[in-house]
Amino acid sequence: MIRRIVHIDMDAFYASVEQRDDASLRGKPVAVGGQPDKRGVVAAASYEARAFGVRSAMSMAKAVRLCPSLMIVPPDFARYKAASTAVFSIFREVTPLVEPLSLDEAYLDVTENAWGETLGTAVAKRIKQRIRDETQLTASAGVAPNKFLAKIASGWKKPDGLTVISPDRVEPFLQKLPVDALWGVGPVTAQKLRARGIERLVDVRTADVQLLHETVGSLADWLRQLAGGVDDRPVVPNREVKSSGSENTYPEDLVEFETIQREIAEMASHAIRWLARKDLLARTVTIKVRYSDFTTITRSHTAPATRDEADLTARAVRLLEKTDAGRRPIRLLGVSVHNFCTEADEAELRLF
Fold this sequence. Notes:
Strand order of the largest sheet: 5-6-1-7-8
Strand content: 15-25%
């Protein structure tokens, strides 16, 4: 049976919620994020702001240079979460096969659905209309036989778009795509592939296998599969959380080692409280350090699973000794925990 996969992506989600709730922001270039004089970063940009080149993850200072009339709004995650909950409630009325990717994005397998619709296109149209009616927000949708194609399709005609790739249109659609449409191909990898003459997605199919492996390593086989439009991954509801943590960009560089230690310890305590709320243990702790020249490194340590605050905090702080903390100015720090298990899992493992 050919699957009907829908990928829904809310349009400029955080910024759209702000414009919905504040009439003075509508039709204006809006960026959600921190202030430019405090090293703020753009979390989301309205389409009016994007017309000036403002993008998420850009420094707010650069965003203001590109768009002097930019209206900066601090994030309100409680409101975004409420809007997301309303949207996902709509999804789950249609099918239990909903795979969240973030607050504003999900895959749905609508091969079988509560509405009895036989066409994925009809389901996507109804979902988009329900979202508009119930949240006053817009979403873009892609409909295709698999997740890879559905995700590309949802971004094809933003905002408020609907792109359908039926099975007989898969090959013509693939012919249009550049190589960086492939998952796992970021700007650096795309540049490497283009340097080898692999410009388009379909070029990956005909590329020499050895050359492809030399260029992208273990990604080669996966990319060849996607280049053929093949993606057998199912839609998996309630995906397992793989990590949790926090990071902070500082308005002024941190230079004192003792200050950096305190910050790392505080972030570790946040992660440990999260483990306690979820009743989980973690085997791996990772720190992230970004120096003033934007060089970014991570350091990790894995040991028997725990959520003991003294143990995990000490491990995070010890990882600082493997960095240049105290010798080079630091603009960002982060701590995260990974490799989760329950106490029962760990007890069984030790017994074995």
